[in-house]
Design brief:
Bound molecules: iron/sulfur cluster, FE2/S2 (inorganic) cluster
Strand order of the largest sheet: 2-1-5-3-4
Strand content: 5-15%
CATH architecture of the largest domain: Orthogonal Bundle
Radius of gyration: 21 Å
Order of helices and strands: EEHEEEEEHHHHHHHH
Oligomer: single chain
Shape: elongated
Length: 242
Protein backbone atom coordinates (compact mmCIF):
# COMPACT_ATOMS: atom_id res chain seq x y z
CA UNK A 1 0.00 0.00 0.00
CA UNK A 2 1.26 3.45 -0.90
CA UNK A 3 2.62 5.46 2.02
CA UNK A 4 1.14 8.78 3.02
CA UNK A 5 4.05 11.14 3.45
CA UNK A 6 3.96 14.16 5.71
CA UNK A 7 6.09 17.08 4.59
CA UNK A 8 6.95 19.75 7.10
CA UNK A 9 8.08 22.70 5.00
CA UNK A 10 9.68 25.98 6.06
CA UNK A 11 7.56 28.95 5.04
CA UNK A 12 8.70 32.54 5.06
CA UNK A 13 8.51 35.28 2.51
CA UNK A 14 10.91 38.20 3.15
CA UNK A 15 8.47 40.37 1.14
CA UNK A 16 5.86 39.90 3.90
CA UNK A 17 7.92 40.15 7.11
CA UNK A 18 4.76 40.64 9.19
CA UNK A 19 4.05 36.91 8.72
CA UNK A 20 6.63 35.13 10.90
CA UNK A 21 8.62 32.06 9.73
CA UNK A 22 6.84 28.77 10.38
CA UNK A 23 6.72 25.10 9.41
CA UNK A 24 3.68 24.09 7.39
CA UNK A 25 2.56 20.48 7.02
CA UNK A 26 1.39 18.91 3.76
CA UNK A 27 0.35 15.30 3.18
CA UNK A 28 0.87 13.45 -0.07
CA UNK A 29 0.38 9.88 -1.26
CA UNK A 30 3.68 8.43 -2.44
CA UNK A 31 3.98 7.22 -6.03
CA UNK A 32 6.69 4.88 -7.40
CA UNK A 33 10.07 6.54 -7.98
CA UNK A 34 8.77 9.85 -6.67
CA UNK A 35 11.54 12.42 -6.27
CA UNK A 36 11.28 15.44 -4.01
CA UNK A 37 11.01 17.47 -7.21
CA UNK A 38 7.81 15.62 -8.12
CA UNK A 39 6.52 15.80 -4.53
CA UNK A 40 7.06 19.56 -4.27
CA UNK A 41 5.49 20.19 -7.67
CA UNK A 42 2.44 18.16 -6.69
CA UNK A 43 2.13 20.06 -3.42
CA UNK A 44 2.34 23.35 -5.33
CA UNK A 45 -0.13 22.25 -8.02
CA UNK A 46 -2.62 20.46 -5.77
CA UNK A 47 -2.40 22.22 -2.40
CA UNK A 48 -0.56 25.55 -2.29
CA UNK A 49 0.46 27.51 -5.42
CA UNK A 50 2.36 30.02 -3.28
CA UNK A 51 5.06 27.51 -2.24
CA UNK A 52 8.50 28.72 -3.41
CA UNK A 53 11.35 26.41 -4.42
CA UNK A 54 13.88 26.23 -7.27
CA UNK A 55 14.36 23.67 -10.02
CA UNK A 56 15.69 23.95 -13.56
CA UNK A 57 17.23 20.74 -14.88
CA UNK A 58 15.69 18.01 -12.68
CA UNK A 59 18.84 15.97 -13.38
CA UNK A 60 21.48 17.05 -10.83
CA UNK A 61 23.10 19.35 -13.39
CA UNK A 62 22.04 22.95 -12.66
CA UNK A 63 22.58 22.98 -8.88
CA UNK A 64 19.48 25.05 -8.15
CA UNK A 65 17.46 22.63 -6.01
CA UNK A 66 19.71 22.37 -2.95
CA UNK A 67 17.82 22.30 0.36
CA UNK A 68 18.01 20.78 3.83
CA UNK A 69 16.30 17.40 3.65
CA UNK A 70 15.70 16.16 7.18
CA UNK A 71 18.57 18.39 8.25
CA UNK A 72 21.04 17.25 5.59
CA UNK A 73 21.92 19.38 2.54
CA UNK A 74 21.08 17.66 -0.73
CA UNK A 75 19.56 18.00 -4.18
CA UNK A 76 15.80 17.62 -4.16
CA UNK A 77 15.71 16.41 -7.76
CA UNK A 78 18.16 13.62 -6.98
CA UNK A 79 16.43 12.50 -3.78
CA UNK A 80 13.78 9.81 -3.97
CA UNK A 81 11.08 9.77 -1.31
CA UNK A 82 11.47 5.97 -1.04
CA UNK A 83 14.84 6.65 0.62
CA UNK A 84 13.23 8.92 3.23
CA UNK A 85 11.04 8.20 6.27
CA UNK A 86 7.28 8.97 6.32
CA UNK A 87 7.95 12.42 7.78
CA UNK A 88 10.18 14.76 5.82
CA UNK A 89 11.28 18.18 6.98
CA UNK A 90 12.42 20.57 4.25
CA UNK A 91 14.29 23.78 5.07
CA UNK A 92 16.18 26.27 2.88
CA UNK A 93 19.98 26.03 2.77
CA UNK A 94 21.56 28.25 5.43
CA UNK A 95 24.38 30.72 4.58
CA UNK A 96 22.70 31.92 1.36
CA UNK A 97 20.22 34.78 1.04
CA UNK A 98 16.66 33.55 1.43
CA UNK A 99 14.41 34.33 -1.53
CA UNK A 100 11.38 32.68 0.07
CA UNK A 101 10.35 29.30 1.56
CA UNK A 102 12.88 26.79 0.13
CA UNK A 103 14.37 29.13 -2.46
CA UNK A 104 17.78 30.70 -1.79
CA UNK A 105 20.08 32.84 -3.93
CA UNK A 106 23.31 30.88 -4.40
CA UNK A 107 24.17 32.90 -7.54
CA UNK A 108 25.30 36.05 -5.73
CA UNK A 109 27.44 34.01 -3.31
CA UNK A 110 29.18 32.08 -6.09
CA UNK A 111 29.65 35.15 -8.28
CA UNK A 112 31.39 36.89 -5.40
CA UNK A 113 33.51 33.76 -4.84
CA UNK A 114 34.58 33.52 -8.47
CA UNK A 115 35.41 37.23 -8.64
CA UNK A 116 37.33 37.02 -5.38
CA UNK A 117 39.38 34.06 -6.64
CA UNK A 118 39.69 35.50 -10.15
CA UNK A 119 38.54 32.09 -11.29
CA UNK A 120 39.70 32.25 -14.86
CA UNK A 121 42.94 31.37 -16.69
CA UNK A 122 45.57 34.07 -16.20
CA UNK A 123 48.04 34.12 -19.08
CA UNK A 124 50.11 36.65 -20.98
CA UNK A 125 49.83 34.58 -24.18
CA UNK A 126 47.98 36.36 -26.96
CA UNK A 127 44.99 34.31 -28.12
CA UNK A 128 45.40 32.98 -31.64
CA UNK A 129 42.06 31.66 -32.91
CA UNK A 130 43.85 29.82 -35.75
CA UNK A 131 46.32 27.96 -33.54
CA UNK A 132 45.70 24.24 -32.99
CA UNK A 133 44.35 23.27 -29.57
CA UNK A 134 47.03 22.76 -26.94
CA UNK A 135 47.49 19.12 -26.07
CA UNK A 136 47.08 17.94 -22.50
CA UNK A 137 47.79 14.57 -20.90
CA UNK A 138 44.68 12.56 -20.11
CA UNK A 139 45.34 12.26 -16.34
CA UNK A 140 45.78 16.04 -16.06
CA UNK A 141 42.68 16.75 -18.15
CA UNK A 142 40.79 14.31 -15.96
CA UNK A 143 42.00 16.00 -12.74
CA UNK A 144 40.88 19.41 -14.05
CA UNK A 145 37.54 17.96 -15.14
CA UNK A 146 37.07 16.42 -11.71
CA UNK A 147 37.20 19.87 -10.11
CA UNK A 148 35.13 21.42 -12.92
CA UNK A 149 32.22 19.07 -12.15
CA UNK A 150 31.07 21.38 -9.32
CA UNK A 151 27.51 22.53 -10.10
CA UNK A 152 27.59 25.28 -7.44
CA UNK A 153 24.65 23.77 -5.59
CA UNK A 154 25.88 25.16 -2.26
CA UNK A 155 25.39 21.93 -0.32
CA UNK A 156 29.01 21.80 0.88
CA UNK A 157 28.79 25.43 2.01
CA UNK A 158 25.53 24.86 3.89
CA UNK A 159 27.08 21.81 5.61
CA UNK A 160 30.24 23.67 6.62
CA UNK A 161 30.57 24.84 10.24
CA UNK A 162 33.01 27.61 9.30
CA UNK A 163 30.87 28.90 6.41
CA UNK A 164 27.91 29.02 8.80
CA UNK A 165 29.93 31.17 11.20
CA UNK A 166 31.80 33.49 8.85
CA UNK A 167 30.42 34.94 5.65
CA UNK A 168 33.84 35.46 4.05
CA UNK A 169 34.95 31.79 4.14
CA UNK A 170 35.63 30.32 0.69
CA UNK A 171 34.37 26.90 1.72
CA UNK A 172 34.98 23.59 0.00
CA UNK A 173 33.55 24.80 -3.31
CA UNK A 174 35.98 27.74 -3.26
CA UNK A 175 39.01 25.63 -2.38
CA UNK A 176 38.01 23.11 -5.04
CA UNK A 177 37.97 26.02 -7.50
CA UNK A 178 41.44 27.08 -6.32
CA UNK A 179 42.71 23.51 -6.84
CA UNK A 180 41.33 23.53 -10.38
CA UNK A 181 43.46 26.53 -11.38
CA UNK A 182 46.54 25.47 -9.40
CA UNK A 183 46.87 22.26 -11.42
CA UNK A 184 46.13 23.87 -14.80
CA UNK A 185 49.47 24.58 -16.55
CA UNK A 186 47.77 27.21 -18.76
CA UNK A 187 47.27 29.42 -15.71
CA UNK A 188 50.51 31.34 -15.24
CA UNK A 189 49.81 32.49 -11.67
CA UNK A 190 52.39 31.13 -9.25
CA UNK A 191 51.17 29.21 -6.17
CA UNK A 192 52.55 32.11 -4.08
CA UNK A 193 50.24 34.55 -5.92
CA UNK A 194 47.28 32.27 -5.21
CA UNK A 195 48.42 31.90 -1.62
CA UNK A 196 48.12 35.66 -1.16
CA UNK A 197 44.38 35.28 -1.77
CA UNK A 198 43.65 31.97 -0.05
CA UNK A 199 46.41 31.60 2.55
CA UNK A 200 44.24 33.20 5.23
CA UNK A 201 41.48 32.31 7.68
CA UNK A 202 39.06 33.02 4.83
CA UNK A 203 40.79 30.29 2.82
CA UNK A 204 42.78 27.18 3.68
CA UNK A 205 43.26 28.09 7.33
CA UNK A 206 39.54 28.58 7.95
CA UNK A 207 38.77 24.88 7.56
CA UNK A 208 38.48 23.19 10.95
CA UNK A 209 38.57 19.72 9.44
CA UNK A 210 35.06 18.43 10.13
CA UNK A 211 34.82 17.41 6.46
CA UNK A 212 31.03 17.40 6.22
CA UNK A 213 31.55 18.85 2.73
CA UNK A 214 33.19 15.64 1.55
CA UNK A 215 30.27 13.52 2.82
CA UNK A 216 27.62 15.86 1.43
CA UNK A 217 28.70 16.74 -2.13
CA UNK A 218 26.02 15.22 -4.39
CA UNK A 219 28.56 15.02 -7.22
CA UNK A 220 30.98 13.13 -4.96
CA UNK A 221 33.82 15.49 -5.78
CA UNK A 222 36.73 14.46 -3.51
CA UNK A 223 36.73 17.73 -1.59
CA UNK A 224 39.04 16.48 1.14
CA UNK A 225 41.67 15.62 -1.49
CA UNK A 226 41.25 19.00 -3.16
CA UNK A 227 41.81 20.79 0.15
CA UNK A 228 44.90 18.63 0.80
CA UNK A 229 46.23 19.50 -2.67
CA UNK A 230 45.82 23.24 -2.05
CA UNK A 231 47.52 22.95 1.34
CA UNK A 232 50.39 20.93 -0.14
CA UNK A 233 50.97 23.45 -2.94
CA UNK A 234 50.80 26.31 -0.45
CA UNK A 235 53.33 24.66 1.87
CA UNK A 236 55.69 24.05 -1.08
CA UNK A 237 55.31 27.67 -2.21
CA UNK A 238 56.12 28.87 1.31
CA UNK A 239 59.23 26.63 1.45
CA UNK A 240 60.46 27.70 -1.97
CA UNK A 241 59.45 31.33 -1.43
CA UNK A 242 57.73 31.52 -4.84
S1 LIG B 1 31.60 21.06 -4.41
FE1 LIG B 1 29.82 19.62 -4.52
S2 LIG B 1 28.48 20.25 -2.81
FE2 LIG B 1 29.92 21.93 -3.14
S3 LIG B 1 28.84 23.34 -4.50
FE3 LIG B 1 30.08 21.99 -5.82
S4 LIG B 1 28.72 20.29 -6.36
FE4 LIG B 1 27.74 21.35 -4.64
S1 LIG C 1 16.97 20.81 -10.57
FE1 LIG C 1 18.99 21.05 -11.37
S2 LIG C 1 20.22 20.12 -9.85
FE2 LIG C 1 18.22 19.72 -9.17
Amino acid sequence: MARILTFSIFRYNPATPEIPPRLQEFQLDETPNMSLFIALNRIREEQDPSLMFDFVCRAAVCGSCGMLINGRPGLACKTLTQDLPDRVTLMPLPVFKLVGDLSVDTGVWFRHLNENLEAWIHTDKVFDPKAPEERMDNPLAHAIYEAERCIECGSCIAACATANMRADFLGAAGLNRVARFLIDPRDERSPAQVFEVVGTDEGVFGCIGLMACDDICPLEIPLQQQLALVRRKMALAALKGK
